[in-house]
Amino acid sequence: MPERAAFFIDAGFLKAEGAKRLGISPARCRIDAVAAVAFLRSLSSDEWGLEFLRAYWYDGRFPPDDPRSPSQQRYLDAIGLTPGLTIRLGTVKQVTPAWLHALRAALARTGIDLDGLGVRMGPVDVQKGVDALLILDLVRLAQKRAFALAALVAGDRDFLEAVRTVQDEGCRVVLMHPVGAGIDPELRRTVDAVQPLDEAELRRFMSATRP
Fold first, then answer.
1. Please, what sign has the CA dihedral across residues 185, 188, 194, 200?
2. CA-CA distance, 197 to 66, in Å (whole number)?
3. Using an 8 Å Cβ cutoff, are 31 and 87 in contact?
4. What is the 3-state secondary structure of the chain?
5. With a threshold of 0.85, does the pTM exceed it?
6. In degrees to the nearest 10, what's the CA dihedral of 89, 127, 37, 192?
7. What would the CATH number be for the domain defined by 4-93+127-208?
């Protein structure tokens, strides 16, 4: 098996948890893809003694009629041109969670009108298909013996069985996450190693845009 490392990055997770660690708003957080790949290359060779295969980047794309779409598309286009990085895109849909209807009804019974108070609680953005793309690539490439080590930048329990499958193929799995990120406990126990990313490491490729 090639002594190579591949990185599988849940961009939404990295941006949300990295921004929280750095004390900036996720909406203003930007990731420098070129700097991120350079950091991952050095991690592969200097710390793990492995050749860098590539980084797989998973994100959700806003629908074309979303006002945020043009700005996001320019950002995704730039990331997609980064050497050493392959981008995989699901979609982003706006949904109204059931608990929001219940909350509004409960507040209405107490006489509190959120709209009258100037509080807006509307639909939330939900990624669709992103986790499935990551799991598919992770398992498929392990079965093809494309890498000896998979670095997973994520924290969701949904990846648990994929991690076990990759390990059954004879590959190691390292879980990478910003310090203090919310990680499923069983996922943490299952991986072969955990690699927390501290503030200094995050600032090598993450920053806040101007308001």
1. negative
2. 33
3. no
4. CCCEEEEEEEHHHHHHHHHHHHCCCHHHEEECHHHHHHHHHHHHHHHCCCEEEEEEEEEEECCCCCCCHHHHHHHHHHHHCCCCEEEEEEEEEEECCHHHHHHHHHHHHCCCCCCCCCCCCCCEEEEECHHHHHHHHHHHHHHCCCCCEEEEECCCHHHHHHHHHHHHCCCEEEEEEECCCCCCHHHHHHCCEEEEECHHHHCCCEEECCC
5. no
6. -120
7. 3.40.50.1010
203 Cβ contact partners less than 8 Å away, ≥ 6 residues apart: 22
Give the residue, 125 or 181, on which the prediction is more confident: 181
Query: In angstroms, what CA-CA distances link 141 with 4, 11, 186, 203?
Result: 12, 19, 23, 30
Output the six-digit token pair for 45: 């060779």
Nearest alpha-carbon partner for 33 in 77, 68, 71, 91: 77
Q: Where are the domains of the chain?
A: 4-93+127-208
Chain segment 160-199, per-residue pLDDT in tens: 999 999 999 999 999 999 999 999 999 999 999 999 999 9
Q: How far apart are CA 49 and CA 44, in angstroms?
A: 6
- How many CA atoms does the CB half-sphere of 11 hold within 13 Å? 29
